[in-house]
Amino acid sequence: MFDEILIFASLGTLAGVLAGMFGIGGGLIIVPVLIGTFVNLNFESEIIVHLAIGTSIACIIFTGLSSARAHNNRNSIDFLYFKPVATGIIFGAIAGALFAVQIEGIILKLSIGIFIFFAGLQILFGIKLFSKPIRPNKSKSIFAGSIIGFLSSILGIGGGTFSVPYFKAYGLSLTTSIGTSAACGVPIAIFGSLGYVIAGINIESLPIYSFGYVYLPALIGVSITSVFGAKYGAMLAHYFSQETLKNIMAGWFFIVSIYMILV
Known about the structure:
The chain is mostly helical.
């Protein structure tokens, strides 16, 4: 158990830094590392991927809060755009969790790897997800939030992959888009976790110390250290140039996608 906590604490530090730098909630490192850790712990194979995603989402509650607070202290969250998107996220995140547990683990793992690879290409080559600027509209923002929440809950991420380009299409700067995206990670994590807990509450093959599809030792170990990491990640986001941030983020996505697809 102690060795597990050390592994999860180290993971949390790195996840927190990434959350603060990129507004991604840290899930793109937490999910693949948890999958590998759970395999080594000899957990039942059919629940490993779902348990990793559910635990990742729960961890993002803490990394998201810490990252959002750090960005808010630097006035890089636009609450006018955040509120309607967050409303849609509430419904989308719960629905995404309930949908994800119906998908076979290996298919879900490969889907996540392929998604991360194309996300890296999108970032590296500056491919715009939105060809035209988006005009603020409450109903459109709520709908967009529901899609962001749904997909993020399935992938076990804080939603920055979707919400950062979405807020940039609003005309916000990259730094403000990252900050507002980090704030969106909080409702994604809270309501996504709720969905994974509900979906796994009666699954007998889950290991001891699990609460639905959330593994509590990992949640504790990652969350304690990620809070500190997020603070320094947010500082780095304001230190690096936008071009440097883009290249670092894309490179990380490629590394993780290869691991998810081939391992």
